[in-house]
Specification:
This protein has one domain: 2-Layer Sandwich (Gyrase A, domain 2). The protein has 7 helices and 11 strands. Helix content is 35%, strand content 27%.
Length: 238
């Protein structure tokens, strides 16, 4: 009768390994992984909502616009960029039928956002590196702390001008001007993707004010400058 081979002696097990790990320790080890997954899901949801857009959920409103005919299109485009309708009626002044955003503080700023001339300049010292014509797209970006930045995508010529300015003065900064007022800046040492600049608001603001200002700047720069002065008012009772 065949006998089974004798198993070689096994080395002693380290008691630190043999001791069962408590359940709470496993939870602690798994927590960073779970948090990472949650953050990724939240970011995906945030970007999906951003791409879907969000229109106003308030009641109907009409904006009376007194300006030249050439300015109506960019003003209407600003409304549409906010996710709001812009149905044109009449002339001198033109009436744009739209909807309220649904927050009184923001709705009160819409006429000024629509009427802002919107002359943009990106400067390094006194040198103008980019204007409205150089901006392919103006939008916003949230950093890791969910703070909003003014994000501009530049054309090839402006991109090369920015690269040259940053390389010549690595400790300097770029300044964003809107209608002659400095509104934001980007340190030259800040790492950004080629062809992009990110504006950090210069004024002290609350989180809500910062979000509102950056959103308004992006809409104004994206659809500006207006070819002539404009006056916009919300019609009473609309």
């Amino acid at each position: 009768m065949a006998t089974s081979p004798t198993r070689p002696p096994q080395p002693p097990v380290d008691p630190r390994i043999a001791q069962a790990r408590p359940g709470w320790a496993l939870v602690v080890l798994a927590a960073p992984i779970a948090a990472f997954v949650v953050v990724i899901v939240l970011y995906i949801g945030m970007f999906w909502l951003g791409f879907q857009g969000r229109g106003g959920n308030g009641g109907a409103i009409t904006y009376s616009v007194a300006t030249c005919d050439e300015a109506i299109a960019p003003i209407a485009a600003r409304l549409e960029d906010m996710g709001l309708p812009a149905e044109r009626e009449g002339a001198s002044p033109v009436r744009l039928h739209s909807r309220r955003i649904g927050r009184d503080d923001i709705d009160a700023t819409v006429p000024d956002t629509l009427a802002t001339p919107g002359v943009f300049e990106l400067r390094h010292d006194d040198e103008v590196l980019a204007t409205n014509a150089s901006v392919a797209e103006a939008t916003t970006r949230l950093d890791g702390m969910m703070d909003p930045w003014l994000l501009l995508e530049l054309d090839a010529d402006a991109t090369e001008a920015v690269v040259a300015a940053v390389r010549s003065d690595p400790r300097g900064r770029l300044t964003f001007f809107l209608d002659g007022e400095a509104i934001a800046m980007q340190p030259n040492g800040r790492s950004v993707q080629r062809g992009e600049v990110e504006g950090i608001p210069l004024a002290e603001m609350t989180a809500a004010q910062r979000m509102q200002s950056v959103a308004a700047w992006s809409v104004i720069i994206d659809h500006g400058p207006l070819p002539c002065p404009a006056t916009v008012r919300a019609e009473e009772g609309s």
